User: Fold this.
Amino acid sequence: MEYLLEVKNIRKRFGDLEVLKDISMHIGAGEVVSILGPSGSGKSTFLRCLSMLETVDGGTMTYCGKKAVTEQDGRPQYAGKEDMTEIKRSFGLVFQNFNLFPHFSVMRNITDAPIRVLKRDRAEVTEEAKKLLKKMGLADKGDYYPYQLSGGQQQRVAIARALAMKPKMLFFDEPTSALDPELTAEILKVLKELAAEKMTMLIVTHEIDFARSVSNHVVFMDGGLIVEEGDPRDVIDHPSNDRTRAFLKKLEQ
Assistant:
């Protein structure tokens, strides 16, 4: 299988606090990987390192065959500017709090980066954006501004914006944590549709049923380590590790 993402021995600390302690993982094309774990386990920091919002203290990261980070003499070496620009285009990131530009319309939120960053034709990008909005159930919202939308609608715009850059994979950092149960269902439906279309996704989530039904692979993190990983039915329904069992039991209460 071709790996779109391969990370080995990733380490990250903030001062004296070691947040990631030797994380290794790979994702194949079309796979959906869910990361579960308690608050403070390092899940979001790991995603921020993968999306270059944080720098790592050690380890290697490879995207679509291109080395983003290598390690020399125990120190991380990041790729040059040109390679890094290409690497960053291989993934899209959807935040838990949407991060839409409040002063841009929905349409401009989606089209701005493809036009400005990728230098693509405006008419072509606008046509694609309309199709993405239709796919997200927001065909009539192109002229709206973020404040006029519900949280679930804003998150769907954020997903459309990420897809507009034509990434090979999407990273989601707890995409439903800011939403109530009804709006959560809207987003999970969109993610299930993307999974059915074989979009490669890495999702930090606390939605256990969703992780079980959509993921090819589930990773349980605790204390900056991958404690357990494997088929969702094994990890979620028959966990072998005591920490995994305790976490899942707490969620059921």
Observations:
- The first helix runs from residue 43 to 50.
- The chain has two domains: 3-90+169-252, 100-166.
